[in-house]
Amino acid sequence: MDNRPIGVFDSGLGGLTAVKKLSQLLPGEDIVYFGDTGRVPYGSRSRETIIKYTRQDIAFLCSFNIKAVIAACGTVSTTSLDDVAGDFPIPCFGVARAAAVKAASVTKNGKIGLIGTTASIKSGKYEELIHACDPKAEVVGRACPLFVPLVENGRIHKGDAVIETVAREYLLPLREAGVDTLILGCTHYPIIAGIIGEIMGCGVTLVDPGAECAQFLAQRLAESDGLSEKNAGGRCAYYVSDSTEGFSRLASLFLDSDLAGDVKQVSLDTF
Amino acid sequence: MDNRPIGVFDSGLGGLTAVKKLSQLLPGEDIVYFGDTGRVPYGSRSRETIIKYTRQDIAFLCSFNIKAVIAACGTVSTTSLDDVAGDFPIPCFGVARAAAVKAASVTKNGKIGLIGTTASIKSGKYEELIHACDPKAEVVGRACPLFVPLVENGRIHKGDAVIETVAREYLLPLREAGVDTLILGCTHYPIIAGIIGEIMGCGVTLVDPGAECAQFLAQRLAESDGLSEKNAGGRCAYYVSDSTEGFSRLASLFLDSDLAGDVKQVSLDTF
Quick one: pLDDT band at residue B37, thresholds 50, 70, 90? Predict the structure, then answer.
C-alpha cells in the first residue's frame, strides 16, 4: 500500500485527459496536477528549453511527496523526459512509451502513423520506442503545429472549414501511406478524434497516449503493491503557472465533469 | 548627444519590424533587442503574468545601459506597460500610444477598427488612448487569436484557404461597421497586411504600430538632443530566451535584410 499522491503534469491543460482516465481507473488515488499555463506551448520550443521546464515541473510535483509522475505532455515524453527522469527519486512515466507499445500491438500491417508537435516529430523518440517492440514496423510521422491553437480556439466541430482544411492537409499523406494505426501524439488531439477518424477512415485505429499511460501506471501500481488503501474518494489538487482565471473554461474541454478540487497559481522560478 | 543604445523588446520576434523601421530612420543608433521566445505568446496569458514578464524584459534591457525602451509587443503596450514603466529610470514607449495618435489623426469618419490579441482587446487601452485624442471617435475592436500561429506557420499567402477563411471571419464585422482606419495591433499582423487590406477594401487605412512608434521615438530623441553622435553604422545585438536555432528563419519574416548582429540566448530567471 502507498497512500502518497500521483503527480501529473503537462505544458497546459491537455494532460487533464490523463487525470480523467486515471480517476476512472483508480478512484481512490489522490492526484496533484500541474499545468504550465504561463509557458505553454512547449512543442515549438528548443529541446534545451523543454528540458529546463521539465526539470522544474517535476521538482515542483516532488514537493508534494508523490509516489510517481506522469508526463502527460507528448512533447516532454518524446523530447526531455529521458534526460531528466534520472534526477528524481520516483518513477517517471511518459505517455509516449505506453502509446508506442499499444500501437505496435494493434497494427496489423505494420504501418503506424504518428501526429504530434514539431518537437515530438523531430525527436525520433516514437520510432525508437516502436522499433523496440517491433523492429520491422514502419512509422510515418507528421507534425501538426496548428492543431493546438485551433483546438484552444474552439475550432473542434465537424464542418468547420478551417479545422477540416488543416486536418485534411496534415492527415491525407498518412492515409495515402496506408497506415492502419494512428498515434494522437499530443494531449489536444483526442478532442478532435472525430474529425481525425473521419479523414483517416474507419479501418484506422486511433491511439490516445494519455489514456494508455494511465492504464499502464494503474497496472504497475497494482503489481507492485503501490496502490492507495482507499477504493474511492481520491482528491485532486490543480496547480497552474498562469492565473487560475479561465482555467475552468479550458479545463472543461478536457474533463467532462466539473473539477473536483481546488485550483491554485504557483511560480516555478525557484524550482 | 546620447550614445547609449535603444532597447526594443517583444514576446517573440515580431518586434523586429520596429527594429527595421528604427534602423531606417536612425541608422547611427545602436539597438539591443530582446525576444522572449522561451515564453511567447503573451497575448493569451493573464494580465498578472504579462506584468511579471514585462518587468523582467525591461530589467534585462536596462542591464545594457539603454537610453530608452520600445515595448514593441502590442499586448505589453496595452496591458502591462503602464504598471511597470515607472519602476525604471528610462523612458518606456509602447507601440499602442503612437498608433492611437496616428489612427485618430487619419480617420475621416471617426470610426476606427482595432485588431489585436485577446489580452489587448480586453484591456480597453486603445479606446482610452484614442479617446484622449478624439473623445467622439468610435472604436470597434476584435481579437484575432489565430493570426499569430497562422503567420508563424507560414500561412501568409493570398489564396491560402485557411488564412483567408479566418481573416474574413475576423474582419468582415469590422468592414460592415464602416471603419475607415484599422490598427494592426500585434506585430505579426503587418506580415499579412495584403490579405487584411484586400478584405477591408481600399478605402481603409492600415496603421502599423511598430513603425509609428519608431517614428515617434526618432522625433522625441531629435527634439531632446538624445540622438547618437553617429549618423550611420549603428550596431544591433539580439537576445532571445529560447535557443538561437531557428532564429534566422523566423526573423527573416520580419526583417527583409540579413541580421546585422549577433544572436545570443539568455535566461531571465534572475531578473
Answer: very high
Q: Check CB contact under 8 Å for A49 and B242.
A: yes
Q: Is A6-94+211-265 assigned to CATH 3.40.50.1860?
A: yes
Cβ contact B146–A145 (<8 Å): no
Q: What is the pTM of this model?
A: 0.93
Is the CB of A242 less than 8 angstroms away from the CB of B45?
yes
List chain B domain ranges. Answer: 6-94+211-265, 96-209
**Residue B46 to residue A243, Cβ atoms within 8 A:** yes
Count of pairs with CB atoms under 8 A, one residue in A, one in B: 58
| Count of C-beta atoms within a 10 Å radius of residue B118 | 17
From the list B62, B92, B133, B186, the catalytic residue is: B186
Using alpha carbons only, give the angle B143, B40, B118 rounded to the nearest 5 degrees. 15
- A126: closest CA among B199, B212, A210, A115? A115
Angstroms from B72 CA to nearest CA on chain A: 20
CATH for the stretch A96-209: 3.40.50.1860
Q: What is the pLDDT of residues B191-219, one digit of tens each?
A: 999 999 999 999 999 999 999 999 999 99
Give ipTM to 2 decimals. 0.90
Q: CB-based contact (8 Å) between B248 and chain A?
A: no
CB-closest option in A49, A153, A161 to B165 = A161
Compute φ and ψ for B4, nearest 5 degrees: -65, 155
Task: Pick the range with the lowest mean pLDDT from B2-6, B157-161, B267-271.
Answer: B267-271
Closest residue in B to A39 (Cα) is: B39
* CB B113 within 8 Å of CB B174: yes
Give me the amino acid identity at A186: C
pLDDT per residue as tens digits for the range A144-177 = 999 999 998 999 999 999 999 999 999 999 999 9
What pLDDT score was predicted for residue A157? 96
Active site residues of A: 73, 186
Q: How far apart are CA A208 and CA A198, in angstroms?
A: 16
What is the grid cell recorded at A33?
Answer: 496536477
